[in-house]
Amino acid sequence: MALVCDLMRAACERQVACGHPFVNNTPGDVDACLEAQRCESVADVLTSPDVVVDPDAVESCAAAIEAASCGALAAQGLGIDPSCEHYVVGTRAEGESCRGGTVSDCATGLSCVFEGNTCPGTCTRAPERCSEGSCGPNAFCASDGACKDRAALGEACDETLVDFENLHDDPCVAGAHCQDSVCVADFDAGASCAGANLHACGEGAACLCADPANCTSDADYACRPARAEGEPCHMALDCGEGLYCNFDDEGRCSKRGGLGAVCGDSFGACQHPLTCVDGTCAGEAPIVSELPLLEEGQSCVESGACPLGTACTCDNEGCTEKRCLPAPSLGASCQEQMLANVTPFACAEGLCDILADYTCVLPAAAGEPCAVDGLTLACASLVCIGGKCASVEQTRCEE
After folding, report:
1. Fewer beta carbons within 10 angstroms: which end of the chain, N or C?
2. For residues 120 and 131, what is the distance between their CA atoms, to the nearest angstrom?
3. Which top-level group of life is the source organism from (predicted)?
4. Given 91, 118, 147, which residue is the final one in a domain?
Protein backbone atom coordinates (compact mmCIF):
# COMPACT_ATOMS: atom_id res chain seq x y z
CA MET A 1 0.00 0.00 0.00
CA ALA A 2 2.90 2.36 0.77
CA LEU A 3 4.05 2.07 -2.85
CA VAL A 4 0.62 3.13 -4.11
CA CYS A 5 0.36 6.05 -1.65
CA ASP A 6 3.81 7.25 -2.72
CA LEU A 7 2.69 7.10 -6.35
CA MET A 8 -0.49 9.03 -5.59
CA ARG A 9 1.48 11.69 -3.72
CA ALA A 10 3.82 12.09 -6.70
CA ALA A 11 0.78 12.45 -8.99
CA CYS A 12 -0.84 15.00 -6.65
CA GLU A 13 2.38 17.01 -6.46
CA ARG A 14 2.54 17.10 -10.25
CA GLN A 15 -1.12 18.11 -10.54
CA VAL A 16 -0.75 20.99 -8.08
CA ALA A 17 2.45 22.13 -9.83
CA CYS A 18 0.65 22.09 -13.21
CA GLY A 19 -2.42 23.81 -11.80
CA HIS A 20 -4.78 21.73 -13.97
CA PRO A 21 -6.62 18.49 -13.06
CA PHE A 22 -5.63 15.01 -14.18
CA VAL A 23 -5.73 12.96 -10.95
CA ASN A 24 -9.17 11.65 -9.94
CA ASN A 25 -9.96 14.70 -7.78
CA THR A 26 -9.43 18.45 -7.92
CA PRO A 27 -8.21 19.95 -4.58
CA GLY A 28 -5.64 22.70 -4.97
CA ASP A 29 -3.07 21.45 -2.45
CA VAL A 30 -1.09 18.21 -2.25
CA ASP A 31 -2.28 16.88 1.12
CA ALA A 32 -5.96 17.42 0.28
CA CYS A 33 -5.42 15.79 -3.13
CA LEU A 34 -3.73 12.77 -1.52
CA GLU A 35 -6.46 12.41 1.09
CA ALA A 36 -9.12 12.51 -1.62
CA GLN A 37 -7.30 9.82 -3.60
CA ARG A 38 -8.08 7.29 -0.86
CA CYS A 39 -4.85 5.39 -1.46
CA GLU A 40 -5.57 3.47 1.75
CA SER A 41 -8.50 1.85 -0.07
CA VAL A 42 -5.91 -0.32 -1.84
CA ALA A 43 -5.58 -2.15 1.48
CA ASP A 44 -9.22 -3.22 1.04
CA VAL A 45 -8.42 -4.52 -2.45
CA LEU A 46 -5.33 -6.39 -1.26
CA THR A 47 -7.27 -8.37 1.36
CA SER A 48 -8.01 -10.71 -1.55
CA PRO A 49 -5.20 -13.20 -2.20
CA ASP A 50 -5.99 -12.92 -5.91
CA VAL A 51 -4.87 -9.29 -6.26
CA VAL A 52 -1.36 -7.81 -5.84
CA VAL A 53 0.50 -4.55 -6.43
CA ASP A 54 2.98 -4.69 -9.32
CA PRO A 55 6.01 -2.66 -8.11
CA ASP A 56 7.46 -2.41 -11.63
CA ALA A 57 4.20 -0.88 -12.88
CA VAL A 58 4.21 1.62 -9.99
CA GLU A 59 7.76 2.65 -10.91
CA SER A 60 6.90 2.97 -14.60
CA CYS A 61 3.80 5.04 -13.84
CA ALA A 62 5.71 7.43 -11.57
CA ALA A 63 8.36 7.91 -14.26
CA ALA A 64 5.71 8.54 -16.93
CA ILE A 65 3.95 11.17 -14.80
CA GLU A 66 7.24 12.93 -14.03
CA ALA A 67 8.34 12.96 -17.68
CA ALA A 68 5.04 14.12 -19.21
CA SER A 69 4.22 17.75 -19.92
CA CYS A 70 1.31 19.42 -18.11
CA GLY A 71 -0.62 19.60 -21.39
CA ALA A 72 -0.23 15.86 -21.94
CA LEU A 73 -1.32 15.10 -18.37
CA ALA A 74 -4.37 17.36 -18.77
CA ALA A 75 -5.28 15.48 -21.97
CA GLN A 76 -4.64 11.92 -20.81
CA GLY A 77 -4.71 11.93 -17.01
CA LEU A 78 -3.65 8.63 -15.45
CA GLY A 79 -4.06 7.07 -18.90
CA ILE A 80 -0.70 8.68 -19.75
CA ASP A 81 0.87 5.20 -19.56
CA PRO A 82 -0.69 1.70 -19.35
CA SER A 83 1.21 1.08 -16.11
CA CYS A 84 -0.82 3.82 -14.38
CA GLU A 85 -4.01 1.84 -14.95
CA HIS A 86 -2.59 -1.61 -14.19
CA TYR A 87 -0.43 -1.37 -11.08
CA VAL A 88 -3.00 -3.36 -9.05
CA VAL A 89 -3.38 -6.65 -10.90
CA GLY A 90 -5.09 -10.00 -10.54
CA THR A 91 -3.18 -13.25 -10.17
CA ARG A 92 -5.55 -15.85 -11.60
CA ALA A 93 -4.24 -17.40 -14.80
CA GLU A 94 -5.95 -18.11 -18.13
CA GLY A 95 -8.57 -20.81 -17.68
CA GLU A 96 -8.87 -20.36 -13.91
CA SER A 97 -12.13 -19.33 -12.24
CA CYS A 98 -12.71 -15.65 -11.37
CA ARG A 99 -15.24 -13.39 -9.70
CA GLY A 100 -14.86 -10.13 -11.66
CA GLY A 101 -15.46 -6.88 -9.78
CA THR A 102 -14.17 -3.31 -9.89
CA VAL A 103 -10.62 -4.66 -9.74
CA SER A 104 -10.37 -7.88 -11.73
CA ASP A 105 -8.86 -10.98 -10.12
CA CYS A 106 -7.54 -12.08 -13.53
CA ALA A 107 -3.93 -11.44 -14.55
CA THR A 108 -3.04 -8.61 -16.95
CA GLY A 109 -4.28 -9.29 -20.48
CA LEU A 110 -7.14 -11.49 -19.25
CA SER A 111 -10.75 -10.69 -18.45
CA CYS A 112 -13.34 -12.47 -16.32
CA VAL A 113 -15.96 -13.92 -18.67
CA PHE A 114 -19.29 -15.14 -17.27
CA GLU A 115 -21.40 -17.66 -19.15
CA GLY A 116 -25.09 -16.93 -18.80
CA ASN A 117 -24.48 -14.49 -15.95
CA THR A 118 -23.48 -17.34 -13.62
CA CYS A 119 -20.64 -17.19 -11.09
CA PRO A 120 -17.76 -17.96 -11.15
CA GLY A 121 -16.47 -16.81 -14.51
CA THR A 122 -13.32 -17.87 -16.31
CA CYS A 123 -10.17 -15.84 -16.91
CA THR A 124 -10.10 -15.55 -20.69
CA ARG A 125 -7.77 -13.89 -23.13
CA ALA A 126 -9.88 -11.32 -24.91
CA PRO A 127 -10.57 -11.84 -28.62
CA GLU A 128 -10.68 -8.88 -30.96
CA ARG A 129 -12.34 -6.05 -29.07
CA CYS A 130 -16.01 -5.43 -29.67
CA SER A 131 -17.50 -2.03 -30.46
CA GLU A 132 -20.74 -0.33 -29.52
CA GLY A 133 -23.66 -2.17 -31.11
CA SER A 134 -21.49 -5.00 -32.51
CA CYS A 135 -22.67 -7.65 -30.04
CA GLY A 136 -26.24 -8.00 -31.32
CA PRO A 137 -29.57 -7.37 -29.58
CA ASN A 138 -28.98 -9.77 -26.66
CA ALA A 139 -25.46 -8.70 -25.64
CA PHE A 140 -23.50 -5.52 -24.97
CA CYS A 141 -19.90 -4.44 -25.50
CA ALA A 142 -18.23 -4.42 -22.06
CA SER A 143 -15.32 -2.22 -20.98
CA ASP A 144 -12.93 -5.19 -21.25
CA GLY A 145 -13.67 -5.41 -24.99
CA ALA A 146 -15.77 -8.59 -24.78
CA CYS A 147 -19.44 -9.12 -25.59
CA LYS A 148 -21.51 -10.01 -22.51
CA ASP A 149 -25.10 -11.23 -22.26
CA ARG A 150 -27.72 -8.67 -21.34
CA ALA A 151 -29.60 -9.40 -18.11
CA ALA A 152 -33.37 -9.85 -18.18
CA LEU A 153 -35.93 -7.76 -16.28
CA GLY A 154 -35.51 -8.46 -12.56
CA GLU A 155 -32.05 -10.01 -12.94
CA ALA A 156 -28.80 -8.64 -11.48
CA CYS A 157 -26.83 -6.21 -13.68
CA ASP A 158 -23.52 -4.35 -13.44
CA GLU A 159 -23.19 -0.91 -15.03
CA THR A 160 -19.47 -0.81 -14.21
CA LEU A 161 -18.98 -3.25 -17.10
CA VAL A 162 -19.97 -0.60 -19.69
CA ASP A 163 -17.65 2.21 -20.79
CA PHE A 164 -19.28 5.63 -20.35
CA GLU A 165 -18.11 6.46 -23.90
CA ASN A 166 -20.21 3.50 -25.09
CA LEU A 167 -23.24 5.79 -25.26
CA HIS A 168 -26.15 3.52 -26.09
CA ASP A 169 -25.11 0.01 -25.00
CA ASP A 170 -26.79 -1.22 -21.82
CA PRO A 171 -26.30 -4.31 -19.59
CA CYS A 172 -30.08 -4.96 -19.55
CA VAL A 173 -32.40 -6.25 -22.28
CA ALA A 174 -34.48 -3.85 -24.36
CA GLY A 175 -37.18 -2.22 -22.27
CA ALA A 176 -35.11 -2.25 -19.09
CA HIS A 177 -32.20 -0.38 -17.53
CA CYS A 178 -29.85 -1.05 -14.62
CA GLN A 179 -30.93 0.56 -11.33
CA ASP A 180 -29.42 -0.39 -7.96
CA SER A 181 -27.75 -3.40 -9.68
CA VAL A 182 -31.09 -4.84 -10.88
CA CYS A 183 -32.72 -4.56 -14.31
CA VAL A 184 -35.95 -2.56 -13.94
CA ALA A 185 -38.51 -1.43 -16.50
CA ASP A 186 -37.79 1.75 -18.47
CA PHE A 187 -39.84 4.85 -17.68
CA ASP A 188 -42.95 5.58 -19.70
CA ALA A 189 -42.98 8.40 -22.24
CA GLY A 190 -43.56 11.71 -20.48
CA ALA A 191 -42.42 10.45 -17.08
CA SER A 192 -40.40 12.79 -14.87
CA CYS A 193 -36.73 11.76 -15.06
CA ALA A 194 -34.48 14.45 -13.54
CA GLY A 195 -31.58 12.79 -11.70
CA ALA A 196 -32.54 9.31 -12.95
CA ASN A 197 -30.28 6.75 -14.61
CA LEU A 198 -29.03 8.04 -17.97
CA HIS A 199 -30.76 5.14 -19.78
CA ALA A 200 -33.99 5.21 -17.74
CA CYS A 201 -36.12 6.56 -20.60
CA GLY A 202 -35.29 3.61 -22.83
CA GLU A 203 -34.31 3.11 -26.43
CA GLY A 204 -35.03 6.05 -28.72
CA ALA A 205 -35.80 8.37 -25.80
CA ALA A 206 -33.87 10.68 -23.49
CA CYS A 207 -34.43 12.79 -20.39
CA LEU A 208 -35.05 16.15 -22.03
CA CYS A 209 -36.37 19.62 -21.36
CA ALA A 210 -39.02 20.61 -23.91
CA ASP A 211 -37.33 23.96 -24.48
CA PRO A 212 -33.52 23.58 -24.25
CA ALA A 213 -33.11 27.33 -23.80
CA ASN A 214 -35.48 27.48 -20.81
CA CYS A 215 -34.83 24.72 -18.26
CA THR A 216 -35.19 26.10 -14.74
CA SER A 217 -36.18 23.13 -12.56
CA ASP A 218 -36.24 19.33 -12.35
CA ALA A 219 -39.93 19.44 -13.30
CA ASP A 220 -38.95 20.61 -16.80
CA TYR A 221 -37.26 17.27 -17.56
CA ALA A 222 -39.27 14.30 -18.83
CA CYS A 223 -38.80 11.23 -21.05
CA ARG A 224 -39.16 12.48 -24.61
CA PRO A 225 -38.04 11.23 -28.05
CA ALA A 226 -34.28 11.62 -28.38
CA ARG A 227 -33.11 14.52 -30.54
CA ALA A 228 -32.66 13.76 -34.22
CA GLU A 229 -29.74 14.77 -36.42
CA GLY A 230 -29.52 18.55 -36.67
CA GLU A 231 -31.69 19.21 -33.60
CA PRO A 232 -30.34 21.20 -30.60
CA CYS A 233 -28.82 19.32 -27.65
CA HIS A 234 -26.94 19.87 -24.41
CA MET A 235 -25.17 16.53 -23.96
CA ALA A 236 -24.38 13.38 -25.96
CA LEU A 237 -27.24 11.25 -24.59
CA ASP A 238 -29.81 13.87 -25.64
CA CYS A 239 -29.29 12.52 -29.16
CA GLY A 240 -30.56 9.32 -30.73
CA GLU A 241 -28.50 6.22 -31.38
CA GLY A 242 -25.52 6.82 -33.65
CA LEU A 243 -25.50 10.55 -32.84
CA TYR A 244 -23.67 12.84 -30.42
CA CYS A 245 -23.99 16.47 -29.34
CA ASN A 246 -21.69 18.44 -31.63
CA PHE A 247 -20.64 21.70 -29.98
CA ASP A 248 -18.60 22.58 -33.05
CA ASP A 249 -22.03 22.96 -34.68
CA GLU A 250 -23.58 25.14 -31.94
CA GLY A 251 -24.77 22.13 -29.90
CA ARG A 252 -26.62 20.06 -32.49
CA CYS A 253 -26.93 16.30 -32.89
CA SER A 254 -24.53 14.92 -35.49
CA LYS A 255 -23.50 11.49 -36.70
CA ARG A 256 -20.69 9.84 -34.73
CA GLY A 257 -17.60 9.28 -36.85
CA GLY A 258 -16.16 5.96 -37.96
CA LEU A 259 -12.48 5.14 -38.46
CA GLY A 260 -10.78 8.00 -40.30
CA ALA A 261 -13.72 10.43 -39.99
CA VAL A 262 -13.11 14.08 -39.20
CA CYS A 263 -13.94 14.88 -35.54
CA GLY A 264 -13.80 17.66 -32.96
CA ASP A 265 -13.53 17.73 -29.19
CA SER A 266 -17.20 17.10 -28.36
CA PHE A 267 -17.80 14.00 -26.23
CA GLY A 268 -18.87 10.98 -28.30
CA ALA A 269 -17.71 12.41 -31.65
CA CYS A 270 -16.26 9.01 -32.62
CA GLN A 271 -17.97 5.64 -32.52
CA HIS A 272 -16.89 3.58 -29.50
CA PRO A 273 -14.09 2.51 -29.03
CA LEU A 274 -12.51 4.98 -31.47
CA THR A 275 -10.86 8.16 -30.16
CA CYS A 276 -10.52 11.59 -31.76
CA VAL A 277 -6.77 12.08 -32.38
CA ASP A 278 -5.61 15.30 -34.05
CA GLY A 279 -9.03 15.80 -35.67
CA THR A 280 -9.47 12.23 -36.93
CA CYS A 281 -11.29 9.21 -35.43
CA ALA A 282 -8.56 6.66 -34.72
CA GLY A 283 -8.37 3.17 -33.27
CA GLU A 284 -5.35 2.15 -31.23
CA ALA A 285 -3.60 5.51 -31.54
CA PRO A 286 -2.91 7.40 -28.31
CA ILE A 287 -5.30 10.00 -26.95
CA VAL A 288 -4.73 13.65 -27.95
CA SER A 289 -1.11 14.31 -27.02
CA GLU A 290 -1.57 17.82 -25.55
CA LEU A 291 -4.30 20.16 -24.35
CA PRO A 292 -3.90 23.94 -24.08
CA LEU A 293 -3.74 25.04 -20.44
CA LEU A 294 -6.36 27.77 -20.00
CA GLU A 295 -6.67 30.48 -17.36
CA GLU A 296 -9.69 31.52 -15.29
CA GLY A 297 -12.05 33.62 -17.40
CA GLN A 298 -10.59 32.36 -20.68
CA SER A 299 -12.82 30.92 -23.41
CA CYS A 300 -13.10 27.12 -23.45
CA VAL A 301 -15.19 26.84 -26.61
CA GLU A 302 -12.18 25.29 -28.31
CA SER A 303 -10.29 22.46 -26.62
CA GLY A 304 -8.38 23.21 -23.45
CA ALA A 305 -8.10 22.40 -19.75
CA CYS A 306 -9.53 24.87 -17.22
CA PRO A 307 -7.38 25.44 -14.12
CA LEU A 308 -8.03 23.83 -10.73
CA GLY A 309 -10.97 25.46 -8.97
CA THR A 310 -12.73 26.35 -12.23
CA ALA A 311 -14.83 24.53 -14.79
CA CYS A 312 -15.83 25.13 -18.40
CA THR A 313 -19.25 26.78 -18.01
CA CYS A 314 -21.87 28.09 -20.44
CA ASP A 315 -21.65 31.88 -20.67
CA ASN A 316 -24.75 32.56 -22.76
CA GLU A 317 -28.21 31.09 -23.22
CA GLY A 318 -27.41 28.79 -26.12
CA CYS A 319 -24.04 27.71 -24.67
CA THR A 320 -22.22 28.87 -27.78
CA GLU A 321 -19.94 30.86 -25.49
CA LYS A 322 -18.14 29.06 -22.67
CA ARG A 323 -15.50 30.21 -20.18
CA CYS A 324 -13.45 28.83 -17.30
CA LEU A 325 -15.48 30.07 -14.32
CA PRO A 326 -15.38 29.21 -10.58
CA ALA A 327 -16.49 25.60 -10.10
CA PRO A 328 -19.19 24.40 -7.66
CA SER A 329 -18.14 23.14 -4.21
CA LEU A 330 -18.63 19.74 -2.58
CA GLY A 331 -22.31 18.81 -2.27
CA ALA A 332 -23.39 21.34 -4.88
CA SER A 333 -24.92 20.45 -8.23
CA CYS A 334 -22.57 20.35 -11.21
CA GLN A 335 -25.27 19.59 -13.78
CA GLU A 336 -25.07 23.10 -15.23
CA GLN A 337 -21.38 22.59 -16.04
CA MET A 338 -22.26 19.37 -17.89
CA LEU A 339 -24.05 21.47 -20.50
CA ALA A 340 -20.69 22.93 -21.46
CA ASN A 341 -18.47 19.87 -21.19
CA VAL A 342 -19.13 16.32 -19.93
CA THR A 343 -16.26 15.76 -17.51
CA PRO A 344 -15.84 14.66 -13.90
CA PHE A 345 -13.43 17.62 -13.40
CA ALA A 346 -16.25 20.16 -13.02
CA CYS A 347 -15.97 20.77 -9.26
CA ALA A 348 -13.75 22.91 -7.04
CA GLU A 349 -13.11 19.77 -4.99
CA GLY A 350 -13.72 16.11 -5.68
CA LEU A 351 -15.48 15.02 -8.86
CA CYS A 352 -18.77 15.66 -10.60
CA ASP A 353 -20.72 12.42 -10.24
CA ILE A 354 -21.46 11.92 -13.92
CA LEU A 355 -22.47 8.31 -13.17
CA ALA A 356 -25.26 9.25 -10.76
CA ASP A 357 -26.79 12.56 -9.66
CA TYR A 358 -24.42 15.27 -11.02
CA THR A 359 -23.33 16.37 -7.54
CA CYS A 360 -19.78 17.27 -6.48
CA VAL A 361 -18.54 14.32 -4.41
CA LEU A 362 -15.41 12.84 -2.87
CA PRO A 363 -14.99 9.07 -3.38
CA ALA A 364 -15.76 7.52 0.01
CA ALA A 365 -14.28 4.37 1.54
CA ALA A 366 -16.18 1.10 1.94
CA GLY A 367 -18.96 1.35 4.51
CA GLU A 368 -19.31 5.12 4.35
CA PRO A 369 -22.73 6.56 3.39
CA CYS A 370 -23.59 7.35 -0.23
CA ALA A 371 -26.64 9.11 -1.62
CA VAL A 372 -27.44 7.14 -4.77
CA ASP A 373 -27.44 3.33 -4.95
CA GLY A 374 -25.76 1.77 -7.96
CA LEU A 375 -22.91 3.14 -10.02
CA THR A 376 -21.45 6.33 -8.52
CA LEU A 377 -18.23 8.30 -8.27
CA ALA A 378 -19.10 8.99 -4.62
CA CYS A 379 -17.54 5.64 -3.71
CA ALA A 380 -13.94 4.50 -4.20
CA SER A 381 -15.32 1.15 -5.42
CA LEU A 382 -17.69 3.00 -7.83
CA VAL A 383 -20.65 1.11 -6.30
CA CYS A 384 -23.19 2.14 -3.63
CA ILE A 385 -25.34 -0.62 -2.08
CA GLY A 386 -28.11 0.11 0.40
CA GLY A 387 -26.88 3.62 1.07
CA LYS A 388 -23.31 2.56 1.85
CA CYS A 389 -20.21 2.37 -0.32
CA ALA A 390 -19.45 -1.20 -1.30
CA SER A 391 -16.07 -2.75 -0.73
CA VAL A 392 -14.24 -4.07 -3.77
CA GLU A 393 -15.02 -7.55 -2.45
CA GLN A 394 -18.75 -6.76 -2.58
CA THR A 395 -18.49 -5.88 -6.27
CA ARG A 396 -17.40 -9.45 -7.00
CA CYS A 397 -19.75 -12.38 -7.37
CA GLU A 398 -19.71 -15.21 -4.84
CA GLU A 399 -18.28 -18.53 -5.94
Report:
1. C
2. 25
3. Bacteria
4. 91
